[in-house]
Amino acid sequence: MAYDFELDPRLDNDSLFLTDWPLCRVLRMNDRAYPWLILVPRRTGKREIIDLSTADQGLLLEEIGRASRAIKTALKPEKLNVAALGNVVAQLHVHVVGRFADDPAWPRPIWGVQAPQPFDSDEAEVEVIQWRERLA
């Protein structure tokens, strides 16, 4: 089934493209402070998880699990944070973030603690390659 899909420009500008899974576009937040993936269901006009079909809700949960396992296996975080806020970017997207006791925001939420620390172009290239391998 084909869907018209357009990524919100804010998500596009703030992230690195990793891959497309059956439901979601998988992005790496361009912030070296946290291992932070963003899953964006490729469905137009969806703001809430409950706006997805029942089948897509199940697929989203599977893909959240897949992203979570990739972070957990590769980096062994102390906690995984999974959130679908959408207060700033209305397009439905889910954050999957590995948290560590020595990260800049621990134990608070990551939002608003510090400005993002983007990768330089060489680091971004390496980051994308590593995450694509972890997610394969």
From TrEMBL:
Alphabetical list of InterPro entries matching this protein: HIT-like (IPR011146), HIT-like_sf (IPR036265), HIT_Hint (IPR026026)
Keyword annotations of the record: Methyltransferase, Transferase
Domain HIT intervals: 37-106
GO biological process, one term: methylation
Gene Ontology MF term list: methyltransferase activity
Record-given protein name: HIT family protein
EC number, UniProt record: 2.1.1.-
Pfam families tied to this protein: HIT
Organism: Dongia sedimenti
